[in-house]
């Protein structure tokens, strides 16, 4: 007999996250979420591949949000804790929209900034100076902000997501991505999604 699928409320999430998931009308995780989220909750690195529309974004977004919420229970300095790398502005906007929906009840505790847009670096600098908990960006944008010292990740980064990893590790993005990885601390939980 097939094993019963877990429901979101059985996965040990913060009530605010569960409420946002319920508002989205999701009762059960999709297959990739059911496989990926428990591993992510154990702190494991993930390498996940699934077809478009299978719920990959929430498969990493939910554990990223949960980890930030859990750690905010003990007093901590405001720092950038998670970096989500995407290949394009459009995907950045989609990720930001999903993060906003999932943080609808905890937007003060989990602040998300999308820096994929074409605005000047100086226009985005104030957003980064506030040290959002999560930054969504393309590798080139993130590198530019690191070089301009608008963003410091060395001591704070706990989670790195590479969305569309197959694309980001391919021609056109690879050099920036490798360069960026050299600027990051050595220890963080990673989510490679494609
Ligand atoms: N557990 C769930 N139950 C019902 N719908 C869900 C669930 N998780 C995600 N969805 C919905 O499924 C759709 C696809 O999700 P998502 O964009 O995360 O997929 P994806 O695999 O990342 O797709 P893409 O490769 O196009 O980025 C979205 O409309 C999302 O709201």
Automatic annotation (TrEMBL):
Keywords, in A-Z order: ATP-binding, Helicase, Hydrolase, Nucleotide-binding, RNA-binding
UniProt EC number: 3.6.4.13
Top-level EC class as recorded in UniProt: hydrolase
Ranges where the Helicase ATP-binding domain occurs: 37-194
Motif (Q motif): 6-34
PROSITE patterns tied to this protein: HELICASE_ATP_BIND_1, Q_MOTIF
Presence of keyword DNA-binding: no
Record bears the keyword Nuclease: no
A GO CC term assigned to this protein in UniProt: cytosol
Domain DEAD-box RNA helicase Q: residue ranges: 6-34
InterPro entries, per the entry: DEAD/DEAH_box_helicase_dom, DEAD_box_RNA_helicase, Helicase_ATP-bd, P-loop_NTPase, RNA_helicase_DEAD_Q_motif
GO molecular function, one term: RNA helicase activity
Catalysis: reaction(s): ATP + H2O = ADP + phosphate + H(+)
One Pfam family recorded for the sequence: DEAD
Protein name per Swiss-Prot or TrEMBL: RNA helicase
Taxonomic source organism: Pogonophryne albipinna
